[in-house]
Amino acid sequence: KRVVCLAGDGIGPEVMQSAKRVLQVVERLYQHKFHLQDELFGGAAIDEAGQPFPARTLAACLASDAVLLGAVGGPRWDQAAERPEKGLLALRKALNVFANVRPVQVDEAAAHLSPLREEIVKGVNFVVVRELTGGIYFSFPKERTAEQATDTLTYTRREIERIVEYAFRLAQSRGRKVTSIDKANVLESSKLWREVAIEVSARYPDVELEHLLVDAAAMELIRRPSRFDVIVTENLFGDILSDEASVLTGSLGMLPSSSHSESGPALYEPIHGSAPDIAGQGKANPVAMLRSVAMMLEQSFGLEAEAQAVENAIAAVLKAGHSTADLGGTETTVSFTDRVVQTME
Amino acid sequence: KRVVCLAGDGIGPEVMQSAKRVLQVVERLYQHKFHLQDELFGGAAIDEAGQPFPARTLAACLASDAVLLGAVGGPRWDQAAERPEKGLLALRKALNVFANVRPVQVDEAAAHLSPLREEIVKGVNFVVVRELTGGIYFSFPKERTAEQATDTLTYTRREIERIVEYAFRLAQSRGRKVTSIDKANVLESSKLWREVAIEVSARYPDVELEHLLVDAAAMELIRRPSRFDVIVTENLFGDILSDEASVLTGSLGMLPSSSHSESGPALYEPIHGSAPDIAGQGKANPVAMLRSVAMMLEQSFGLEAEAQAVENAIAAVLKAGHSTADLGGTETTVSFTDRVVQTME
Ligand SMILES: CC(C)[C@H](C(=O)O)[C@@H](O)C(=O)O
Ligand SMILES: CC(C)[C@H](C(=O)O)[C@@H](O)C(=O)O
């Protein structure tokens, strides 16, 4: 299995180091061989190669079985001709990973850190499925004059259909409920979105479909988050709502994500950013990255037992009271990873 | 002073009744004369006149000194040719009320109802200034075929400038900090927005300007809401974020809003919806509507003492432990209003 590792910027290289160690343990314990290939990406690639997503990195990703990403960006590159984020958008488009999947689950170890009252976050367990390669991020024309600027938001029936299908299939393996989020009282693209969602739902009679307007959804995520099972929404709404949702859990450092195409390699990354303020200090929580590794083992390689072993080891270490500073603990990125590795062994 | 009253749908007529009673008390106590004129709007107008914003209502609003709005919409009109929301958008555009102002303040009486932990919501006091007549709500082309749908998001420099100016002037009378929210790492319109915000800020050296990406803002509103003073953002982001922000306070039934044009009549309305589930039962909390009245007295008519009297009466009644069911109390819309009226007298 060829895995391209894009460590990226800030704390990216530190958590990527953890990921590699855990993958090596999986190799040893379960007799697998992962070919791990480092490539330049983001600000690091701007520094070394003059652009955030060099052709060599692109070629390696396309030829891989899965891509692991640390984090990109930082104030250092704010004035760059092409910013690190451009590279991220280009990577998503190149891999055609239209389905971004973000599980939102409240860990016992972090529940006290949630800004929400305990009775509201208790038992929260849902997944946000965000459309990742369409909408206003990628539509044309984008126009800019001195006097005005224009963005375009286009969705095709096909684009909506495949992401909604993805959400329904996921819901079948979970709580059998899909919440489709749009702004159908204002946007043409949302009207089409809602129509297609209704059409798709007819093919999944065992899954309940509800519609929510994006403004109402922003409220419901805080008021009654336990009502959600699978949320599906378009690119920009998904950006906003998945970040809002991640705060519920009390630690951004715990949440993984995966992004899937129809057939090519998938992309796995923690939802947290590059956190330049704590970079290089060994403070980063590696859990989000390690859980992204677990998602890769299961979803790209079908290695369920191995994925479960990683998840179980993380849970056991947390349960034993060990955690990094973001959760109030005293572990470093390395010492926390040591404990996960020891537990697995 | 001519005030057009658009009671609208659901609980709209009930809270409008409270507003009128309080305005009559203000007339009597302070020797003013308000000419209150009822007009059809929303679903009620669809039922009576076949459309949500009849020409007669438009003419009355344009000829008024201020417009009070209850609430519009409800499932009954979901299949209408023109839905009630269309009327609301047309009203905003007709009055050219580009600046929607929503104070977000945590009342002691409702703090225990906030889904957020007490230490996080304590002392929260900020204002969301939402651009209300531009952006993706009103830009063209909007296109729809069987296979795809397109919306357009355009902002002109002038549109951005006037709303950002509005926010800076407001900040001068408050905490002297403006948080401008955009998605400048992806959208052309946001890049222009950010440029103009920086230009405008040069004219207000006494006010601090910070920029926040919309996804980060959705997180910060829950993580550290007390960091905000004046938030300014474009129409759709403002729709999402102001609704998210309103949940912090624990009761949507408490929050007023005002919408201002450059010179014509302003529009005042509670932020809550028409709540068809409790309509006609006397359960609606009239506080948001009464506070909208107080905003009108102060902002449209310069009647500061009168506005303060309304605010003080509401605060006193709440402090004495009287509230409607949404706050855990036993008052009805009418009996709560009785108490406010008695306190004022
Ligand atoms: C960096 C940015 C372009 C990106 C996005 O908006 O998609 C980020 O916020 C994310 O959610 O991964
Ligand atoms: C009803 C709808 C069109 C409206 C909006 O999106 O502006 C509402 O959500 C609001 O915020 O007043």
From TrEMBL, chains A, B:
Residues binding substrate, per UniProt: R92, R102, R130, D215
Pathway of action: Amino-acid biosynthesis; L-leucine biosynthesis; L-leucine from 3-methyl-2-oxobutanoate: step 3/4
Record's subcellular location: Cytoplasm
One Pfam family of this chain: Iso_dh
Transmembrane feature ranges: none
A GO BP entry: L-leucine biosynthetic process
Name by which UniProt lists this protein: 3-isopropylmalate dehydrogenase
Primary gene name: leuB
